Amino acid sequence: xxxxxxxxLLMLNANSSQSVTEGMESELAVxxxxxxxxxxxxxxxxxxxAIESSEDVTLAHMLVTKHVQSCNYDAYVxxxxxDPGVAELRxxxxxxVFGIAESAMHVAxxxxxxxxxxxxxxxxxxxxxxxxxxxxxxxMLAADLALxxxxxxxxxxxxxxPRIEKVGRKLVKECGATSIILGCAGMGIHRQxxxxxxxxxxxxxxxxxxxxxxxxLGENIKDTKIN
Length: 227
Prior knowledge:
Helix 4 (about 100-110) crosses helix 8 (about 205-215). A 4-stranded parallel sheet has the order 2-1-3-4. The protein has a 4-stranded parallel sheet with strand order 6-5-7-8, with helices on both faces. It has 8 helices and 8 strands. It folds into 2 domains: about 10-100 and about 210-215, Rossmann fold (3-Layer(aba) Sandwich); about 100-205, Rossmann fold (3-Layer(aba) Sandwich), CATH 3.40.50.12500. The chain has helices spanning about 20-30, 55-70, 85-90, 100-110, 120-135, 155-175, 190-200, 205-215; strands at about 10-15, 40-45, 75-80, 95-100, 115-120, 140-145, 180, 200-205. By secondary structure, the protein is an alpha/beta fold. The longest helix is centred in the C-terminal third of the chain and has 17 residues, at about 155-175.
């Protein structure tokens, strides 16, 4: 009997920053190693180094759509919190494309009660509110608050973590969030630290997107021995 070829998944960073792509791959490495699929990581060379402004988002929608159309994978996770190209690709018939924001929101909704979103910039919040509405989860959003840091600033833990802590505590203590979604693909390096600090589930949207793709592909995790 011919052995089934493993499914192939592309984790696509919608910006051109190699460091963001490498950071995402590093943060997902241990958990992704348990999945019985081939996972590739890539970014879009023609995209801005960070997707922040409305103009960046518009360009990202176009570039992601073109990039996915030029590839051949069993599933795609678009690793940018504005979920660029996802709606466009689904309209073209792609049923194997997953946005990290949409995925994270549904994971948070299944945890129960209300979730908060840690955004990077004030300009991001309005976009996220619309995304929550499209997902049908507006009644589960506690608040969406901005750090007012750029995407690349998130790599500097000394700069980013004091703000993440302050805004995260506000989401939990003042806004009533019982879980927190990290509102950027480059924020995963802070997930475990923030979860231990606040004592509530903190969701890495890149992992949420990967989990959603795995569920659709119907693949099994690898057999592991427990010592």
